[in-house]
Structures are given as C-alpha cells and as structure tokens.
Amino acid sequence: MAQRRATAHAPFAHRHLGTTGPELGTILQRLAVADLEDVAAAAIPEGLPVLPPREHAQPASPSAGGLDEAGAIEALRALAALNDPHVEMIGQGYHPCLTPAVIARDILGNPAWTTSYTPYQAEISQGRLEAQLLFQTVICDLTGLPVACTSLLDEATAVAEAATLMARAARANRGTVILDAGLHPQCLEVARSRCQALGLETLQIGAEEISDAAALPEALLGAVLAHTTTRGRVQDLSAAVRVVHDRGGLVAIDADPLALTVLACPGQIGADIAVGSAQRLGVPLFFGGPHPGFMAVSQALQRQIPGRIVGVSRDAEGAQAYRLALQTREQHIRRQKATSNICTAQALLAVVAAMYAVHHGPQGLRDIATAIHERAAQIAVGVRQAGLEIEHEDFFDTLAVRLADAAQAVARAEAGGYNLRLLDAEHVGVSTNETTTAADVSRVIALLTGQELDDAQPAPPADGVLPLPQALTREGDFLTHPTFHEHRSEASLVRYLRRLADRDLALDRTMIPLGSCTLKLNAAVESAAWLDPALAGIHPYAPARQTRGWRRILGQLSSRLARLAGYDRISLQPASGAQGELAGLLAISSYLESIGQGQRDTCLVPASAHGTNAASAAGAGMRVVVVASAADGSIDVEDLRRALAANERRVAAIMLTYPSTHGVFEPQVTQVAELVHAAGGQVYIDGANLNALCGLMRPGDLGGDVSHLNLHKTFAIPHGGGGPGVGPVAVKAHLAPFLPGAPTGSAAPVDGDPDTGFTGAPVSGARFGSAGAMPLAWSYLALMDDADLRTASLSAIAHANYIAAELADSFPTLYSGPGGWVAHECILDLRELTAATGVSAEDVAKRLIDFGFHAPTLAFPVAGTLMVEPTESEPKAELDRFIAAMRTIRAEIDEIAAGAVALEDSVVRRAPHTLAQVAGDDWDRPYPRSRAAFPLEGMERDKYFAPVARIDNAFGDRNLACTCPPPTAFQDEAI
Asked: What does the pLDDT look like over 74-85, one tens digit per residue?
C-alpha cells in the first residue's frame, strides 16, 4: 500500500500546533529568541543529552510518521483488515454487546464527553459527575451494597483491590486472603501478584471447601468468591459467607452485572464488597479494554474504597450539586497512605455503562439477561439431545460441555467462524451474550456435536428444562430512580445527554491549562476508526492467527514509543499511568531479587513528585523515603546523598519526574541517576511530562532504567473525564524479562509480537490492557514524525514561557531554570497575595469559571499555587484570552488589597456566578451583574455559565451520598 506524506500546504502538524507562522513569531519575539531551536538552547541546561534537530521522515510511513490524515486512516484500516473476526463466545469475563447507536455517537464520538478532564473543578463538571453518579447508582442497585466508586481499571484489578482492601480494613500487614478457585484465571493471577508484593498470603480453594472452618488459616483477612464461576456454575455462597464472617474476615463477591438482574445480589448474600466488570453494559470488547471495573462496599468500608467517589452536596445557594467526595485527589495528599494508587480509571466507559442502563431501564436489562440465559439453555438442551453432557445445570450464560476431544471441537468451531473456550482436554466453554442469535445457537450445537453446518437444525426450545436456580434468584426491585425510566425514546435520551454535556467545560469549548496533565488537541482523525468492528469487536483471548492486524498495530506503536523514550522494550499492558508505575516497580523488585539483591526494598521519592509515585511504591511493597527539594525547586542533592547513605543496601529505586513536577529542566538529573546507580538502585523516570521531551531528549538517555508513558497525555488519547488512560512501561534490556506477561487464556506471544519474553505476573486482565484506545495514539504517531514531535515539544515550552512572561507582574512564577526559563508548565505563586488579602488560589480557580476557563492545577505540587500547562495545541488568541483573564483577576484582587471591597463580598470570593444569580430579581452584591457575568469584552455572545454556584465540600463529606437521590430528597436534606 502506498503511504502518503502530508502535503506541503496542509500537514497535520500545522493543524495540531496552535501557533505557527506570524503568531509563533510574536511569541518568540516576546521571549527574545529567533526560533524554536533557540528556545531549546535557552530552556534546557547545558550538559544534558539533547537530540539534534531532525529532518522530516522520508518516506512517510506509519512507523516513522508524517502521513496525511487520509493516509493515516487508510493505513489503520488496512491493518484492521488483517484481523479475522469470529463470533466471540469465549467468555472469561469478556462478552460482545450492542452499544446503542445513540451512545456511540453522542458519547464515544462526542468531544464534549471524550475531551473533558477529571472533575476536580466540580462546578464545571456537573454533567459528567451526574453521569458517573448514575454509574455508581447502577452498581449499588445491582450489587445491593450502598457505596460504589466511579470505576476501576478492569475486573482483574478490581478483584486485586478487594483483596488489598481487606488488609487495610484489618490494619494488618500480614494475613491470608482466600481466592475462590472459580474466579477467572486472569483475576487470580493479578490478585496473587498484588498480594505477594504486599506480603499477604493467598489460599486458592473452591468456595464449597470454605465450609470446613477448621482448615482455614488462622489470620484470615477475608475471601474473594465467584458469584458465577469461570466455568459457568452459579454458586450458593451463603455457607462460605457465614464461615468467613464467623472467622472475622470480610467477603467480596465477583459478579457479572447482567447476571445480577436475575440472580441474588452480593448484598442479599451478605457480602461486604462486590467487584466485577461493567463491560457488557454497552462497552465494546476493544481487544481487552478499556473497560470499567467496579467496586461497591458496605457503609463501614466507605473510607477504604479505592478510586474516586462522586457525592451529592450543595452549593452556596443551597442547590443540589455533585462533587468528588472523600478521596478527592487523595493520592496527592496521603501519598503512600492512600487507599490505592489509582488516579485515572475508566470514567468515559463508566458513563457508557450508565447510559446503557438509562437506555434500557431495569426491565430492559432483565429482558437482555433472560434472553442470554435462554440462549445458553437452548445450547444445553441441544448438546444433551445429541448425547453430550454439561458439567453443571445451574448456569447463567456459560456452559462447560463435556466431549471426547475438546481441542478438536474448539478447532472445528473456529473453522466454522466461532471462538469457543478450551477449558481442559474434555470440556469446552461456551458463553452466550446479548448478540447471540438463534442461528448462532444452531451452528454452535452443530459444531460441538460434529454435524455439518449445512445440516444444523433450528435452535431447540428450552421450555424451562434448565431454569435459573430458584433458590438463588434476585429479590426486590432495582434502578428505581426516575432517570432510569424517563428516557425510553431516543429524542429524550439525546436531549438528556446534551443537557449533561452542556453543563461541562471540555476541550471542545476552552483551553484546559492543567499543569502535569497535558490536555491537548485530540484530533478527530485519531478516533476515525477506533469503533470499527474489525478492531473493537475482537476478544482479547482470540487466537493469535485471528489478530494479526491488532498485533501489527501494537508492535508498531511499541517500537516507536521505545525509540522515542530511549528504551529497549515496552509492555503495553498497564491500563493507566499509575498501573504503569506499579508494573515498573514490580519489574525492578523482581530484577533485584534475580541478582541476589532482594533485600532492596526502599523507594526514594522526591517531595515534588506526583502523589501516585509514593502510592505506587507502597503498592509494590516498598518503603518510601522522601527526598527534599532545594530552594530552587530541584532535588536537594545533599539530602539525596544522606538518604542513600542512611538506606545503604536497601535502596531499590528512585522515582523522578522529568522535567520536574516544579516545571523546570533540572540540570542535575544525570548526576542524580549516577548517584542512585552507584548505590545499587534503579532509576524510574515518570513519563507524565514527556510532552516536553519528545524529539528533544529521551528518559533512557538521562539515566532512566524504566519509565511509564502516559498515552492520554503526550500521545493525545482523549482523557474522557477521568479515563481511559494508558500507561505503557518502557525499560532497559535487563528489566525486560520481568515485564507483565500474558494472562492465562491469552494467545501465546509469537515472533514479532511486542511482548515476547515477558514473564512477570500480569497487572491487567488482558494481555494488551486498554488496547482499544491505542489506535488513537498509533494514529497520532503515524501523523507526526520525529521532527513534528520536536516542534510540538518546543511549542509547548514556548507557550508556557510566554504565559509566565506575560503574567510575571501579576502572578510571578515560583520556580524557573537557568536564565529564568520554565519547561512546558509554570507554577504561578499566589502565597504572598493570599497572606496580604485572603484571596486563595481556589478563589482564582473559581473566578476563572466566569471567564469560561477550566482552572489550572490547584495547590499541587505546592499549596497556594496554580500550575499552568498551555500545551502546544492552543492558539495564541486562547493564550492571550487566558492572560487577559488572569490580569483582570489580579486587578480585582488589588481592589481587595486596597480596601475598596471586602473579601467576602468580592467578585472573586463569590465566584462562580450562575445564570440564575445574574438574571434573578435579587442582587445584593457591591459589583454589577455585568462584571460578574461578562468580565471581558466580547463575552456576551458566547458565554458559559456554571450550572451551580461554589460547592460546599465539607457538607458533602459530612453527609455522604453516592447514589442518585430522589427528586425530593435534597429539599428535605435527607441525603
């Protein structure tokens, strides 16, 4: 296939970059440099291994970049065509489903949903917060437990999180967690690995064996049980739950959400925790992810639950408002004491699952579940009539069919277009799903029994021969909130989704200048093919010969990322940056153990590091020692020397962020790496700020042994309001064998696959983690060659320095490198202003809403500051609008300083201003309505109003409600 280079007049890079030509020239002139290469010379300290300028790729290709938009789409679809889609009936936690077209178009294809950020600024996130509250409500209702989080990374990690939660709740560093042998193999593997890292014992036995209490371990933390086993048997767990509780342990139940519409829910059974995957609630297979894992817990465990919780609070006017509760940014506050290292989860996919429930309603979900069971029962009847046996009669959607040669039957089914699961030499697993038709039933029966497909008989009637077990069926209603009943028509649902989207600020409306988070252009071309069935419809455990296209896409992505980062190998398995951190640290621990240095258990973490660094180190079973920052914000080298000396022979690693979290290129980064290496440790370089390095420097050249790379930051995967995130982990050759291997059931790696030779324990349930999002990063790199990436990095640095320079008189930058230059982000210091006037950084963040801006990063990494990252994709007009907004706010603060207005009555403290306030009959404020609503000239035509006033965070934590309250509840304050 011919590859097309971007044309001279319309290269993609010129669409990706916000400033080019005269606009870029004006910015460079303000910085007193001639061109972008002068920016590199000025901002990057001498002595660092800077790459030379690059020429544009000739010829352009997917592996080198530089394709035009049509060429990139053509190349991706050609690779997708190499896949060989089959009817997927493998199961094992992954099921085809029907994503309603309205959800595919209005959520997965809508930048208002895909480009929004994590809802840390709640006033401008009310739409996505309501959607995630709906997801929590779905999970709470289906599981019968009162508190749920907004999502977890997948089912396997949810099972692992349940096991580690048990240890936290017991405040125990030691003890045993029982893992039901009936759990899916990938769940067992991930949970065992996580427990082992924390020093927790695991015991793998069947749920029925738990009834012998005398045989259970003495220090029992709890048990994770399978609601329905991986072989399909619906279990009566009442006895096992009673025995574990009698021994003082907690019980978690791993359950399928559709099964919970017809079978007894975990809360009904007596569980303390419920986990699982909401994938089959409308989320495509995506070759393994991104999929929304879930967890719900009892009231007693609500402060132990990992991840985020959306809660209901009230705003300054007393109106109902949503916000993140309890764990809000806890990973940045509690660090190694956080409940988990989860930062980004699967918010976008949780929204899809929630809206799937809204679309179908409770009866619709029951009907889908009933139809799935009936199809499985038809297959059971058919194979029995043909003389075969089924392993169990109590099933929901999965059968274990016994036959003489299971492998031959699976091969026969594959040849007939169906993927079934080889359970063992004598059993084939068959899982029905929402897409299973009567024709599928007939063909599967024929394939299992060895009939010719042309002779397949009509699907036999089940006639109630194999009903759901009556004693284990569900009691009571679910999804009773009006939202799950009001939107049966598409017109109603479309308008509901539009109303929610209109309450938010996303990249489709405005710059999101969040330092450390890189919210940049997510071009439409990148997502042009990601929902194509040839990509999104493939099961993660499909045979390797059916997934040649997927493996070639992932291989090209892996090779390009490794080269850009300066490493030898990459694992694409981690489904978030934090999971990439964990995978890298586990690889370090395994490597050290392999060379006789297993006593090394200490991770050095700079005080300025991302909070997930310390939480990930703790999750990997390491001690955390903090290294101080010097006065200029860089690592205090002398304190590092002291830490190395004090922890001699125990140092396993240091976790650096480069450029530093303080927004500067630290000149001593290579010295730090040399000191740690000399002490016997490994160097982890956090890839969160890679957007300042691509094409300029490589973490592997700075002394890094391992880095994770945030594809949702540097490589332009949309953030989705809090996920999907993808965090591949890149390593030098000596660590490669210890990267995450393929979970049981995955197709074994073959020559040319990007993960050959990896033998570490998996960290996700799928071999390639959130593979479904990776075509977006692949497309970005197919469009951008190395020269384009260098230009993007330098443009990001130029934009950050332009903002710092323009705001120097209003809000000085806290830290800078040699010559006063920052990297791709700058920290604006408000602490002196706050001391003099009482105006806080949060006040400024809320006032920015009135200007139609998302706030910069608030109070991280330094309390009382705002960290600004404009990225390379913002036009100069948007940069100037932000500068004008900040200058206007500074003038408003000066009025307070001069005593012209009291702080509590000021436009800054009473921000944001809602439409209801400025259009209402009552106005008792000392400033005019126009100043509140239209603080800059020209805003009258295109004005975003926050739907709520400033939210009362403390009230929400005192009165936690994490499910949708009834319409009258808030009026009565009964939440």
From this structure: 999 999 999 999
